[in-house]
């Protein structure tokens, strides 16, 4: 079959790879009809990780079941399903507590598994014609038959639940104000989810015009951090107080404000200043234990200079980590089915798999409006 293969820094290619096959009675093989490129894929694409050439990318996968193992009980060939990016067992201590992003058995030595991701286990990615889904009764979410709302449903694999998770980590409640740093797919989904949860005022901070425009279209207040301090701009619009809650949807690739260089702790520190005393921060943006490309020796060891003193002084709470997709995906699916959520506004491009190389390049440069790309392997 054809798949998106990592060749080395800033290079992917669509190549022939081995077809996946059933390896365990609870596996299924899914014929992938939609698979999205993620900001997390860019970390590997840019050569910032230990990802070796040859890895097949793709953890945001939707398709139709082609083949089921003998032990599969709740799924049949022909079912349309979307898979959480987390590969999880369903029976370990963390899975039974709903913390499927931290499954203890699918990737021993590291909490949590995922498809097509460095250090996240042996699960081949789904930017391909087919993908193997382990523990399929647990790791598939059934969708209505047909092809309707495909671009909404594919976002249930990661970014819609992840944006929602940012709100859960920050404990966003009705009537509260929320500052979201990052207007990428995760940030836009975090802002959208904040509104679904009844936030009164939502700010989205970025510098990419198309992304700020999408934020405005969904009713958020766009804040361009190249036009002056984001903290000051948000404070001015919250009576000088700052917001109740804040979400980091940028992670360690944060751009320094006012200068053209990376400054990994920038967003964390800006959030500490943006959120009012006793508020809370949700951090779905990714931070890593090691960043070989980090700007200094400490950053290379994953150690960042964060204003912990201010965090404590203000009595701020902070939640971090991978999204436990399964915790929210059924409910978010039903909002889509009932027409109460339409997350696909974030999708800027739908392309055949063969155009993956260009799509990665443009999404990575954040040019030509590339905000979220969905690939269709059988188009
Ligand atoms: N926790 C999870 O489970 C999970 C899941 C998916 C993605 N992620 C992470 O979420 C983050 C965002 O993902 P994405 O797909 O939206 O990526 P993205 O790279 O497309 O978006 C990041 C956005 O942040 C903006 N940005 C950069 N520096 C900034 C700053 N200082 N202030 C404000 N905005 C700034 C960029 O212009 C960009 O638009 C990444 O770190 C990704 O790895 C986490
Ligand atoms: Zn993703
Ligand atoms: Zn588990």
From TrEMBL:
Its EC number is 1.2.1.46. The keyword NAD applies. Keywords: Metal-binding, NAD, Oxidoreductase, Zinc. Residues 185-254 form the Alcohol dehydrogenase-like C-terminal domain. GO terms for molecular function: formaldehyde dehydrogenase (NAD+) activity; metal ion binding. InterPro entries: ADH-like_C, ADH-like_N, GroES-like_sf, NAD(P)-bd_dom_sf. Its cofactor is Zn(2+). Pfam families: ADH_N, ADH_zinc_N. It comes from the Bacteria. Residues 25-144 form the Alcohol dehydrogenase-like N-terminal domain. Belongs to the zinc-containing alcohol dehydrogenase family. PANTHER family: GLUTATHIONE-INDEPENDENT FORMALDEHYDE DEHYDROGENASE, ZINC-TYPE ALCOHOL DEHYDROGENASE-LIKE. This is Glutathione-independent formaldehyde dehydrogenase. It comes from Streptomyces griseomycini.
């Amino acid at each position: 079959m054809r798949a998106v293969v990592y060749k080395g820094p800033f290079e992917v290619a669509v190549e022939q790879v081995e077809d996946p096959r059933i390896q365990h009675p609870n596996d299924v093989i899914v014929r992938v009809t939609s698979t999205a490129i993620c900001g997390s894929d860019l970390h590997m694409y840019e050569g910032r990780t230990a990802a070796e050439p040859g890895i097949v990318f793709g953890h945001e996968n939707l398709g139709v079941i082609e083949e089921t193992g003998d032990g599969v009980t709740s799924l049949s060939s022909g079912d349309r399903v979307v898979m959480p990016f987390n590969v999880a067992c369903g029976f370990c201590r963390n899975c039974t507590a709903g913390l499927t992003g931290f499954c203890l058995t699918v990737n021993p030595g590291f909490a949590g598994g995922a498809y097509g991701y460095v250090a996240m286990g042996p699960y081949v990615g789904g930017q391909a014609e087919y993908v193997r889904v382990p523990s399929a009764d647990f790791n598939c979410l059934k969708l209505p038959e047909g092809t309707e709302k495909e671009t909404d449903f594919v976002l249930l694999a990661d970014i819609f639940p992840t944006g929602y998770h940012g709100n859960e980590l920050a404990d966003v409640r009705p009537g509260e104000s929320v500052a979201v740093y990052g207007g990428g797919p995760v940030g836009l989904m975090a802002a959208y989810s904040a509104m679904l949860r009844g936030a009164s005022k939502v700010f989205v901070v970025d510098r990419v015009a198309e992304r700020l425009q999408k934020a405005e279209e969904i009713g958020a207040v766009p804040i361009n951090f190249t036009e002056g301090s984001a903290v000051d701009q948000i404070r001015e619009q919250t009576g000088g107080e700052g917001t109740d809650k804040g979400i980091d949807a940028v992670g360690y690739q944060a751009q320094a404000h006012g200068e053209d260089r990376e400054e990994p702790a920038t967003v964390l520190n800006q959030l500490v200043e943006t959120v009012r005393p006793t508020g809370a921060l949700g951090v779905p943006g990714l931070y890593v234990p090691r960043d070989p490309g980090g700007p200094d020796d400490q950053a290379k060891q994953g150690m960042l200079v964060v204003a912990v003193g201010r965090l404590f002084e203000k009595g701020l709470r902070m939640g971090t980590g991978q999204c436990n997709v399964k915790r929210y995906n059924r409910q978010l699916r039903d909002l889509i089915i009932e027409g109460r959520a339409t997350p696909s506004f974030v999708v800027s491009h739908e392309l055949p798999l063969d155009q993956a190389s260009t799509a990665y390049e443009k999404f990575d440069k954040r040019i030509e409006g590339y905000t979220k790309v969905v690939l269709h392997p059988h188009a």
